[in-house]
Amino acid sequence: MNVEADTGALFQVIGTGLVVTILMTVVSFCAGSVLAVPVALMRTSRVWLVRAPATAFIDIVRGIPTLVWLLIIFYGLGSVVSLDPLPAALIGLTLISSAYLAENFRAGIENVHVGQKEAAAALGLSTAHQFWRVVAPQAVNIAMPPSASYAVALLKDTAIAAIIGVTDIIFFAQQEVARGAPAVTAFLVAGAFYLIVSVPLSYFSRFVDHKIRQKVVVV
Amino acid sequence: MTFDNARILLKADAIEKTFRGNRVLDGISMDVHAGEVIALIGPSGAGKSTFLRCLNYLEQPTGGSLHLDGEPVFADPLKPAKSELLSLRRRVGMVFQTFNLFPHLSVVENVTMAQRLNGLRSTSEAEEYALKLLAQVGVEEKAEARPSECSGGQQQRIAIARALSQDPELMLFDEPTSALDPEVGNDVLRVMRDLADAGTTMIVVTHEMRFAERVADRVLLLDEGRILEEGPPERVFRHPEHARTSRFLHAVLDR
């Protein structure tokens, strides 16, 4: 048996899932970031009635495992409207990342020094300008490093989507194992593909963290 | 300089502030004439900063009222309308102890932002004016730098330029040199002195007794939320009426 040729073939087959894995990560991270903004704004509201639904959303979404969410959405929502595995996974992962990112944004907003808002107010800026021109840009800076780390966690979380039939890295690895490929080799290859994406991402997140620490000196 | 005939720019009438049942300001009244420099001194916890912050409503007083140029600032001082708040804050500039420059903007952007957003000047006019103000406070070479690349003394002078960019009728200074080493603090005090000489109306909360003595037209000594002593600096410093004033002055001057 030609082990090298077999491993090369495994790389080729499993690698076809890489695009879907990256697609799930990028789409749900971006859509989650957008959705996280209103959630974070509601979460930092002084009005309980506005804050409570956001808090509940975050706690409920984060309190249920990703696997369970994907199954609920795929089978639950899928029974109402016709839903392919990939859209179901995108909906679920977007929901989950919006909850995690909303908490990052909230922490960002709350960690902007109170003197910043006061300085903006003292200049006669409107409440909207105080927030969007002074607080929000700094909140994003503060939220960036933890959010970049979250992107790595999300990438790994997408592996669960294979359960509902999304044709990602894991899906092809499992398929090759079912066809008789050695399981350890197949999943080592899968692991290698995750590393190809996650290591540069981690490096990038550290770079961003370092850049922001240089830029924002919290007085 | 006397201000007997000058117009009263700001009138604070019986300003009160209570924090959770704790009375911090116990009805402070004060007239500020156009062009006057007032030093607010007193022991820590006397309510100096709180009073100053009540003058631009960063703290909302729990009683009393403000008049600017003879007009009430708020129809109902306890329920300030947004437009009334913005109008007050655009007429009154403030400089903080900790500078509070915007770290995500360059120095010149710190000075232009409010001008642009408040519709005071066009982008190019705002920039031109910002550079003029930065030159005035002696930090024009830092225009493109980030605040974090400037020394504390430079940051405070930039903060002064930022406050001046709104063409305020009155400038409030909240312990502007307390976070600075004495030698760089002097650069800030020099800028403030130039402003005073140019006729800027200023209220300065300060522990710099020499500055108060030389630059202020009037000194107010606050104690326990009230004005304990008030008058021209030479009288307050040399012939205080109250024993408490003497004790306070001895304590700060002996440092």
UniProtKB/TrEMBL annotation, chain A:
A Pfam family recorded for this sequence: BPD_transp_1
Keywords: Amino-acid transport, Cell membrane, Membrane, Transmembrane, Transmembrane helix, Transport
Domain ABC transmembrane type-1: 18-205
Keyword Transmembrane helix in annotation: yes
TM segment ranges: 20-42, 54-77, 83-102, 154-174, 180-204
Protein's cellular compartments: Cell membrane
Domain of life: Bacteria
Membrane topology annotation: Multi-pass membrane protein
UniProt family annotation: Belongs to the binding-protein-dependent transport system permease family.
Protein name, as recorded: Amino acid ABC transporter permease
Taxonomic placement: Bacteria, Bacillati, Actinomycetota, Actinomycetes, Pseudonocardiales
UniProtKB/TrEMBL annotation, chain B:
Keywords: Amino-acid transport, ATP-binding, Cell membrane, Membrane, Nucleotide-binding, Transport
Domain ABC transporter, residue spans: 10-249
Superkingdom as given in the UniProt entry: Bacteria
Cell compartment(s), UniProt: Cell membrane
MF terms in GO: ATP binding
Membrane-related topology note: Peripheral membrane protein
Family annotation (SUPFAM superfamilies): P-loop containing nucleoside triphosphate hydrolases
Record SMART domains: AAA
Record family assignment: Belongs to the ABC transporter superfamily.
Protein name: Amino acid ABC transporter ATP-binding protein
Provenance organism: Prauserella alba
